[in-house]
Amino acid sequence: MLTKEENELITRVGPGTPMGNLMRQYWLPSMMSSELPAPDCPPVRIRLLSENLIAFRTSSGKVGVVANSCPHRGASLFFGRNEEEGLRCVYHGWKFDVAGNCIDMPSEPAESNFRAKVKAKAYPTEERSGLVWVYMGPREVPPPLPQLEANMLPEGEYVLGSYSSECNWLQSLEGDYDTIHLGFLHQGSIRPEEVPEGSLEYYVLKNRWARYVTEDTEFGCTYGCNRPAEEDSTYWRIAHFLFPFYAMIPTVTLGDRKMFIVVVPIDDENCLRFHMSEKLPGGGGGTNWPDYNGVTTGYHSDPRHNTSDWLGRFQLAGNVRNDYLIDREIQRANQGGMGYSGIPGRGQDGAVTESMGVVYQRDHEHLGVTDLGIIRMRRLLIRATRALEANGTIPPGVDNPEVYKVRSGGVILPNGVHGIQATKDIQWRAVREEPPKIEARA
Is 435 contained in some domain? Predict the structure, then answer.
């Protein structure tokens, strides 16, 4: 349970807030490259950390991100002409490049040097493996991009999807770092005998309770969720929280897949989620759940679904206005992947995280043993935010991009083994020099 002051500290992200200042130390995934599909294509409205911004792709292909308001009279640059390496305001023709420099001011006399004195607010960008990154921080030279393996793959070797959520960023991220809900919200109606015996999924359904251990790391923290497997073995689910807003969850055998989830704050009451992973052998790993009554309920990779308003990007069909498409008959039947909740697809997560309220007040909750990972994540965020505010201490990972090259997953180990400690070489498979030293099966 957090105090009201602590809750406020780590949820509010607007300009000048302590958590907003911490977020601005990092590069922010802001949009998919496919949202700006071609040079000189229409600009896109994006909101990051409560700031309204306009993204555009220049004639040479570079992505620019500038403040919504033209510095002349405040008209929105969303309506601007994207042409010849700059975005031109249609009000008076002032034109700005990706650095915010005014490169043309046709409304002023030819002899005027006024344009050299005017600059639009602009943020540095980088583009890598389908994601556009934005740096909104104080450094003149930004830190390096985090070395997230899934975001360092060649075109065609990764899967990228996104969806927006109508709640504060932290409660959405906490849903990812909460592995115990898998056996209830998503799989509560599935019986152990309905899945292959000895599979990782089998042990989740066989024992829906678990024990937890956590360990602080140089990127954030790791939890080990463990429960009985066979008489002589234990099933461990190893997952990571990485500063400031990443989760790596145990979806496959430990170490076998490059993946991450990132929950980027749009503002205090909305967030945008990106799910990225390498493609599975045979082309698996798509980004949409099965349709429900002809409606796609998963997360999306096609920006043609988007609208042009500030909150119109990657919306799910199931939302608060339609009760997340809950089907009470399916819930009553209690069968299949959506039978426990009666809610299809990603709406399952939305229904529980968004129904807490757009900014959840954590002083009301009662936490148990299986909340240990979430408790630790919150404490680390509080500590890092206060350290930055009080002493200017740079938070974890900002200047150490290599610490993001870690992997999550499930593994079956002999009883009595500490799962986090025993699997370090598998978690760091991308950087280790020696093969795994333990016997592990999945």
Answer: no
CA distance 405 to 145: 12
Check whether residue 265 and residue 375 sit in a common domain.
yes
Q: Any bridge partners for residue 12, and if so which? A: none
Domain that holds residue 403: 149-427
Tell me the C-alpha distance between 359 and 353, whole Å: 10
101 DSSP 8-state letter: B
- Distance between CA atoms of residues 117 and 108, nearest Å: 13
Q: Is 192 part of any domain?
A: yes
pLDDT of residue 301: 81
8 A C-beta contact, residue 253 and residue 410: yes
Domain assignment present for residue 21? The answer is no
Task: Say if residue 38 is in the same domain as residue 154.
Answer: no
Residues 132, 125: contact at Cβ < 8 Å? Answer: yes
Provide the 8-state DSSP code for 172: H
Is residue 406 within 8 A of residue 240, CB to CB? The reply is yes
Distance of alpha carbon 387 from its chain centroid, rounded?
A: 24
CA distance 243 to 161: 21
Show which of 74, 105, 135 is a domain's final residue.
135
* Same domain, yes or no: 57 and 177: no
> Can you list the positions of beta strands (E) in 384-425?
409-414
Contact 289, 275 (CB under 8 A): no
- Rounded Cα distance between 15 and 18, Å, is 9
pTM of the model: 0.94
CA distance 46 to 207: 43
pLDDT in tens, 268-290: 999 999 999 998 776 555 555 55
